[in-house]
């Protein structure tokens, strides 16, 4: 069965982010938040540097994960860099609803991460896609305490 052009684009973007993730590594002098997906074994270590105004000044992730988990983390870091904590939380909520099948116009807000809307067709992969976004929510929660 031949892939459609859209399916081919999806595969290319996801594969590229998985093989060459953006913002991979650890930030010095920041707390590292570790989360894991017990269902499949994905682990993310997220470092977020906020400025005094609560804007994400820098962000990095490391860990071990499947293609979707790694690609989603890469796309998430691109989407939230330079955003305020509240803007980043809003994006995390939009992403979470999107991968659970809610239809809304997200391309403009999520950038390349919107391509992961197809995960909604595979419920077993939703936790893979949302792991990094959930880590971001926890990192923001910790920073605000």
Automatic annotation (TrEMBL):
GO molecular function per UniProt: iron ion binding; iron-sulfur cluster binding
Biological processes per GO annotation: iron-sulfur cluster assembly
CDD domains: IscU_like
Domain NIF system FeS cluster assembly NifU N-terminal stretches: 10-128
UniProt-listed InterPro entries: NIF_FeS_clus_asmbl_NifU_N (IPR002871)
SUPFAM superfamilies: SufE/NifU (SSF82649)
Lineage top rank: taxon: Bacteria
Record-linked NCBIfam families: SUF_scaf_2 (TIGR01994)
Family that this chain belongs to: Belongs to the NifU family.
Protein name per UniProt: SUF system NifU family Fe-S cluster assembly protein
